């Protein structure tokens, strides 16, 4: 049949060449039509929004760029200005970054910043190998190096409880005391395990690792590297902001995981203690925690014993943040189906293995938005340390705006704009990275 | 984890505890080799670091003077920036040896806070700032004026007292924050701006053209600002007190940073006692006999400090007024060294 049939005259033999889409649906015009002016209501909304943007953006641009003063040596340059006084930011920029950290010693802070970037950036890029080594270095070696570089190290422990007649105060006495305490702890562990009849081999080695780690920490911090000591009261600006934020984040996360697990534990003492801790810290505002640490705590300590103010703030921030994070992580733990726990158990995994290999990876992935939300709010909360006399970026800017050399009507506003830009850059970067991680880890569930 | 925290705390305590209180503050300071001085971190003219991080101001210089008296070295001071809330605890807990931070000497502070005030470094008080164009030369001409101030401070109460006692009507325009008050004043929402006079001079600097504004001569409250120490350490109290007296006496005797070396050989018995050539006044308070000479040589006399930090030639431009010596129309008066 087919060989006889001539092609029907009404069947076209060539494919019609593609014609361009109607001009009104492609390009900028088309995009605008479909997205901005698709209906009368949308059109009105678009026009209103555009008007609003112009209305608020124009003065901002005028103030920050067009009318701004970029150069000058003192307030004379900015006193009559109607725009931002960037000359002041320029003059004060080193102080915004380092605070009153001694100028000849600032290279140490630079190294700390550089090390952070060098260790953090590969950590954040998924493709770079050696994640485990990287993480271990970032969480152990880096804080130690940063501590020694920033404070100058050389704490020179002298020991405290052995009488001076036996060993003279000095590093030797400290080492002996440390060995004594470590031995006592290990002995006590052994005794307890003998009493209860349970093998303590595992926890014994765990404790030994902690004691060894502490010994290394004391050795490094006690060693005199010949660096000039820099008091934390001289730290300031971005340095303090980052120290408080990063320490808060790093220290609070493991604590929070422990608390979250503790709150879901079946052991009443552990559970009650975790709940009490979490509810206590969530029941008070951060400003109270800081105030307590800074003003009340010294009153309870014996005469003449004072902690470093920054240390007090760091401990307060970390504990406070841990309580909030613990609840976020508990949410993640609760979202894991019971089958996952049972499946892990069926494999014969112990509690910690179950958590480490099966439950926590899933739970933490689920709550990335919550964790990052907490971190971002922590980053912003660091500004509260200003009330206890620590100069974070914002505090430093506020203090400098009072300098007689630069005081002018626009100085303060310029400082605040600068602070806003820096904080926005950090917070936005964090949120974008979290979104990226979320998408990456979510691949298995997307359809 | 607990162990770890406990060890860290113990370690930190060991470091911090190195300066634990012993015999007395003076001995502690000498042993430590540095004076810990609590100062205001952001008050122009009284205590503030500049863009290089160098501290300057009247209160700051007083710390340096005390360090000179003890060590003959004004750089042996560690400045501890403190805000108003933590200043007293910092002193009580031993975080600082001396509080030199525009603190008003009041009876309640003297009696119940465990402090002792070593004297008055600056007689402050509430004043008024107005535009020169207003044509007012006295606060008594402010009848019916709108006055800008901060809410919930004693400033507002003093204001009410002053206007009521002079039978003048007025209107308060109050704001939560200092910056808002200043903005309102600049925008012309009120005729006068009231707060402590030293604050007025500092705030004036932030106006577009400071020269168009003036501070009226009336001071309507007493705010004597001075350094404070912990109660119960008489020896230390005496050192701080006499450092201040030395600054004042030096100005009265005409001793300055520049001329003290040549005046050292003067025959004037008062100067002889001052520089330590005659008598044992220094060792009587636990210092060297040339302590006062060192103070003046290193930092200058009270008048020099005033002029350098807040005086008419500085940006603040505060007139000596009450802070002039008693012999020149002010009320600064120091007991003699004899």
UniProtKB/TrEMBL annotation, chain A:
Pfam families: BPD_transp_1. Residues 238-434 form the ABC transmembrane type-1 domain. It is found in: Cell inner membrane; Cell membrane. Its main location: membrane. Keywords: Cell membrane, Membrane, Transmembrane, Transmembrane helix, Transport. The chain crosses the membrane at residues 43-65, 107-125, 137-155, 175-195, 207-229, 235-262, 283-301, 357-379, 413-436. SUPFAM superfamilies: MetI-like (SSF161098). It is a multi-pass membrane protein. Belongs to the binding-protein-dependent transport system permease family. HisMQ subfamily. This is General L-amino acid transport system permease protein. It comes from Kaistia geumhonensis.
TrEMBL record, chain B:
Residues 1-21 form the signal peptide. It comes from the Bacteria. Keywords: Signal, Transport. SUPFAM superfamilies: Periplasmic binding protein-like II. PROSITE patterns: SBP_BACTERIAL_3 (PS01039). This is General L-amino acid transport system substrate-binding protein. It comes from Kaistia geumhonensis. Belongs to the bacterial solute-binding protein 3 family. Pfam families: SBP_bac_3 (PF00497). Residues 34-263 form the Solute-binding protein family 3/N-terminal domain. Coiled coil: none annotated. The keyword Transport applies.
């Amino acid at each position: 049949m087919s060989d006889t049939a001539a092609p029907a005259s009404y069947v076209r033999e060539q494919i019609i060449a593609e014609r361009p889409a109607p001009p009104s649906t492609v390009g900028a015009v088309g995009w605008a039509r479909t997205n901005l002016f698709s209906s009368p209501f949308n059109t009105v909304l678009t026009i209103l929004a555009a008007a609003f943007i112009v209305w608020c953006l124009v003065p901002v641009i005028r103030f920050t760029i067009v009318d701004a003063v970029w150069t000058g040596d003192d307030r004379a340059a900015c006193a009559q200005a109607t725009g931002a006084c960037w000359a002041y930011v320029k003059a004060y920029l080193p102080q915004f970054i380092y605070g009153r950290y001694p100028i000849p010693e600032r290279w140490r802070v630079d190294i700390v910043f550089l090390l952070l970037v060098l260790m953090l950036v590969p950590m954040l890029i998924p493709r770079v190998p050696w994640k485990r080594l990287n993480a271990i270095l970032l969480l152990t070696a880096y804080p130690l190096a940063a501590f020694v570089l920033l404070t100058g190290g050389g704490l020179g422990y002298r020991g405290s409880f052995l009488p001076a007649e036996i060993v003279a105060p000095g590093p030797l006495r400290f080492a002996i005391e440390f060995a004594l305490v470590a031995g006592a702890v290990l002995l006590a562990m052994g005794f307890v395990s003998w009493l209860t009849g349970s093998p303590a081999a595992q926890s014994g080695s765990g404790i030994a690792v902690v004691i060894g780690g502490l010994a290394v920490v004391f050795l490094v911090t006690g060693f005199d590297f010949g660096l000039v000591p820099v008091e934390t009261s001289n730290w300031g600006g971005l340095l303090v902001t980052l120290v408080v934020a990063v320490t808060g984040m790093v220290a609070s996360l493991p604590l929070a995981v422990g608390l979250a697990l503790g709150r879901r534990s079946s052991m009443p003492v552990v559970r009650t203690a975790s709940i009490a801790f979490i509810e206590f810290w969530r029941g008070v505002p951060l400003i109270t925690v800081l105030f307590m640490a800074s003003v009340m705590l010294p009153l309870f300590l014996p005469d003449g014993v004072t902690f470093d103010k920054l240390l007090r703030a760091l401990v307060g921030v970390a504990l406070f943040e841990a309580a909030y994070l613990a609840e976020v992580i508990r949410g993640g733990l609760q979202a894991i189906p019971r089958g996952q726990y049972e499946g892990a158990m069926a494999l014969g995994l112990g509690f910690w293995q179950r958590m480490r290999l099966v439950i926590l990876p899933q739970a933490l992935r689920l709550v990335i938005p919550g964790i990052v939300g907490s971190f971002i709010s922590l980053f912003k909360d660091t500004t509260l340390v200003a009330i206890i006399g620590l100069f974070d970026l914002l505090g430093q800017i506020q203090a400098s705006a009072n300098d007689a050399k630069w005081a002018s009507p626009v100085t303060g506003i310029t400082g605040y704009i600068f602070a806003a830009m820096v904080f926005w850059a950090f917070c936005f970067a964090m949120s974008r990275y979290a979104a990226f991680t979320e998408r990456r880890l979510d691949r298995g569930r997307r359809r | 984890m607990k162990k770890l925290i406990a060890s860290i705390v113990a370690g930190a305590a060991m470091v911090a505890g190195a300066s634990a209180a012993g015999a007395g503050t003076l001995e502690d300071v000498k042993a430590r080799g540095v004076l810990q001085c609590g100062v205001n971190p952001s008050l122009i003219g009284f205590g503030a670091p500049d863009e290089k991080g160098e501290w300057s101001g009247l209160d700051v210089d007083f710390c340096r003077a005390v360090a000179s008296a003890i060590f003959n070295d004004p750089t042996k001071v560690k400045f501890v920036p403190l805000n108003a809330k933590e200043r007293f605890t910092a002193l009580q807990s031993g975080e600082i040896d001396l509080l030199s931070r525009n603190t008003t000497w009041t009876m309640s502070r003297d009696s119940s806070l465990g402090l002792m005030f070593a004297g008055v470094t600056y007689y402050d008080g509430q004043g008024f700032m107005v535009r020169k164009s207003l044509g007012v030369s006295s606060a008594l001409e402010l009848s019916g004026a709108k006055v800008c101030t901060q809410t919930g401070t004693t400033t507002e109460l003093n204001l009410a007292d002053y206007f009521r006692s002079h039978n003048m009507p007025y209107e308060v325009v109050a704001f939560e924050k200092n910056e808002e008050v200043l903005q309102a004043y600049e925008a012309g929402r009120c005729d006068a701006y009231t707060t402590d006079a030293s604050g007025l001079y500092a705030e004036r600097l932030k106006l577009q053209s400071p020269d168009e504004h003036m501070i009226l001569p009336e001071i309507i409250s007493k705010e004597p600002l001075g350094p404070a120490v912990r109660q119960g350490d008489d020896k230390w109290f005496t050192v701080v007190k006499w450092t201040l007296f030395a600054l004042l006496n030096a100005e009265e005797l005409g001793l300055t940073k520049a001329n003290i070396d040549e005046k050292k050989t003067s025959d004037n018995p008062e100067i002889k006692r001052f520089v330590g050539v005659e008598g044992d006044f220094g060792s009587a308070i636990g210092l060297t006999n040339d302590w006062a000479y060192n103070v003046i040589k290193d930092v200058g006399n009270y008048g020099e400090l005033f002029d350098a930090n807040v005086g008419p030639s500085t940006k603040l431009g505060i007139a000596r007024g009450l802070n002039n010596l008693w012999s020149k129309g002010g009320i600064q008066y120091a007991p003699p060294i004899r």
